[in-house]
Amino acid sequence: MFGLAICVGTITFLIAAGYVMRRKGCRGGKTAFLCAMGVSSLLVFSGAVISLTTHPAFAASEVQVSSAAGLGFLACALSTGLACLGAGIAVGSVGSAALGLVGEKPEMLGTTLIYLGLAEGIAIYGVIISLLVLGRL
Question: Range of 103's domain?
Answer without folding.
Answer: 65-137
